[in-house]
Amino acid sequence: MDFPKRRPRTVEIQPEMENLEKLYFTNISMYRLPPMSEVSIQEFEEMVLDRLRLLRILEHSTLKEFKPYSNEWRDFVLTELNVAGLKGYVRLIQGASGQKESVLQARRRDYISHFLLRLAYCRSQDLRRWFVTRETELFRLKFMHLSPDGVSEFLKVHDLKYNEMTAKEKDYFKASIASCTFSGSVASVENGKYFKVPFASVPDLVTTGRCYLFRGVAFVSANDIVSIVSTDFKKILEDGLQALTKIISEVDNDERVYHIIKNLHKSYIGRDYATGAAGSVSLHQIDDLSKKSFPLCMRIMHEHLRSTHTMKHDGRLQYGLFLKAIGLSLEDALRFWQEEFTRLIPVDAFQKKYRYNIRYNYGKEGKYKDFSAYGCRKIIDTFPTPPQVHGCPFRNLKEARLRDKLLAYGVSRAHAEEITGIAKIGNFQEACKRYFEISHDVQLALSFTHPNKYFEESQVVIRNRKRDKSEPVKIKTESERLLDDDAKLWEDPSNDPDVKLPDPLMTQTQDPAQITMDWENAF
């Protein structure tokens, strides 16, 4: 991707074709070739954030108890996308056809945003893995809406050819296929189409018994071809992301682009934690909430503030923005910090030294810009020195001190040893997740990537437990929470954005030696 410095407000992706119908002729793509179009810096940022919201919704869907790729899972995702205002993606997923401007523009944004997001998520193995997983979920979601003719057209357009079973092979294996899979009768096997692929390429079908295995070969029904295509899709993405890691420094040289993507993985784009939930939390609730629903990092900071009546600048930022995001109003925030600090300093000293910064964080001073609460990645990457107490305790506290802190907070010794063991090997977010599970007596599918996500899910668990202690805890979605009319409960769940993602710029067949040349020509 070439970002010319002589055009300060535009990111140029060399245009070779002007016709949207020729460039973006399908709703679902393998993303083999980088886009050739032009986007403004503003559109660049909008595309990236919208797609990240989409992928976060897919990630959040994994917290539900739906069967993967079931109709219930699909309906949940589509509902969440509509709530988030991502109607362009809904159109594409549901198979919008025709050459209307709105459809073509949705395809364009889908295609370009995929490649732009690669720039942010090609930077680590964890980010690449996350990105490939989410993009594959999106791919399969789109594929679910293809008609049989649409599937055939897709395979033709993308030149995807798979080894089909011969009539002789089908006749030999038909009884075995019918008895070992969900294919039904022998007659249905005879009338159906089956492909032969290595069993390792369709692990989901092997696990669920939807294919017949013979000497390392899986016989797959055409109805399940999405599993085969998804494997190829993942390979293209993985290869492209890996290739991009070798040349990403060239992109980082462009300050306009780097400014947008450098902290993308640290941003939180589920609920708007720049503005918070006005009035959700009052001053007198904080002490109780800190014990029940604060993640360990915030609870430690809160108790430090209450006991010492002081906190360094970085700690005030981390903790203050967290309180703002859970809904502490500016007026209550000023009162909260003043009540603590003025136990050691005069009121006029507080007004001169701290009042402006608190108002600044709420967008009421300076540039009048709201600041977002820190995500886990940013918190983990900070290294406080005594007497500072910010950062991630699972990373910064020594093993014995972390264990003692957990014991003091009511965690059993066995569980405290388990959590410190997880933290010791560097799985800080997994340790935080385990702390949540133990303290709330629930099981989670994913680790937290934002302290406000922790807080919200804690509130959901508490709310649901109060509502019906006889039912297992169910973590509700954003749309479900918005329907809840209990004003004291938190209305949004969250999506998390602290992960880096991968990039499928290169195709499977490209020579690594050509990567630099391909990058320059393509972008």
From TrEMBL:
The keyword Transport does not apply. Keywords: 4Fe-4S, DNA replication, DNA-binding, Iron, Iron-sulfur, Metal-binding, Primosome. One of its GO terms (cellular component) is alpha DNA polymerase:primase complex. Residues 485-513 are annotated as: Disordered. The keyword Protein biosynthesis does not apply. InterPro entries: DNA_primase_C, DNA_primase_lsu_euk, DNA_primase_lsu_euk/arc. GO terms for biological process: DNA replication initiation; DNA replication, synthesis of primer. Binds 1 [4Fe-4S] cluster. Residues 288-455 form the DNA primase large subunit C-terminal domain. GO terms for molecular function: 4 iron, 4 sulfur cluster binding; DNA binding; metal ion binding. Residues 485-501 have a biased composition (Basic and acidic residues). Its cofactor is [4Fe-4S] cluster. Pfam families: DNA_primase_lrg, DNA_primase_lrg_N. Regulatory subunit of the DNA primase complex and component of the DNA polymerase alpha complex (also known as the alpha DNA polymerase-primase complex) which play an essential role in the initiation of DNA synthesis. The primase subunit of the polymerase alpha complex initiates DNA synthesis by oligomerising short RNA primers on both leading and lagging strands. Belongs to the eukaryotic-type primase large subunit family. This is DNA primase large subunit. It comes from Phlebotomus papatasi. The lineage of its organism: Eukaryota, Metazoa, Ecdysozoa, Arthropoda, Hexapoda.
